Description:
The chain is α+β, with helices and mostly antiparallel strands. It has helices at 2-15, 26-117, 121-125, 146-158, 176-196, 216-220, 223-229; strands at 129-133, 162-168, 204-208, 231-238. The chain has two domains: 1-118; 121-238, CATH 3.30.1330.60. It is built from seven helices and four strands, in the order αααβαβαβααβ.
Amino acid sequence: MRIRIITLAALAALAAAPGPASAANPAEGKRATNIGIVVGGVLGAVVGGPPGVIAGMTLGGVVTDREMKARRNGQLEEELTALAEVQREVATDRTRLQARVRELDRDLAQERRVAAARPDVAALADGLAFSVGFRTNSAQPPEQAASSLEALALLLNAVPSLEVQIDGYADPRGTQDLNRALSEARATAIRDQLLAAGIPAERISIAGHGAPQLDAAAAATDPDGWALQRRADIRLEHKDEQVVARP
């Protein structure tokens, strides 16, 4: 009797312990079921003889099959839980992205409102003019004009639609040819400083006008007037881009 009980316990343990991989492997599951049937049959034979063989085999197969299904169901539930967690993370990321898109849309709308309210710098600068004075018989811009020319170059670089017209002049002393050459040299000196600051040459126009036509007697006796005539006039012009129709 004692040997029979030990045998029953061993066989029962064998029947209840299918391999770990059998839940995930149909072939292993079938093998475990077959083992359960065989072990159940042996148990039935030990307990009840030939009738017990049939009952034991049936019971062993049913128990093993139920255990395999339970393990498969548990594994599927774990996978389902993991997928649900991934779905929640995706939904959270989607909500976060949608909020960011709304935020960017608000920022863009604000920028557009600010841009619409901002004055047109090119239009404001159109027609802006100032003069740079020169010493007698000199085409070198004075040092005090350097800051004004630097500011002019910054404006021209920032607003590409602006162009600059530079007109040079001389006082009435000297010959007409000398005054014209000197006035053009003064305009050229201003242009060269703008070119050095990165302004394209095609945006700068220059002209030398010589000495203004004044009364000869007044021109010969007006030193203060001479100082005002030794100059280069700088004028900004806003050039709208023209759209040319093409066939």
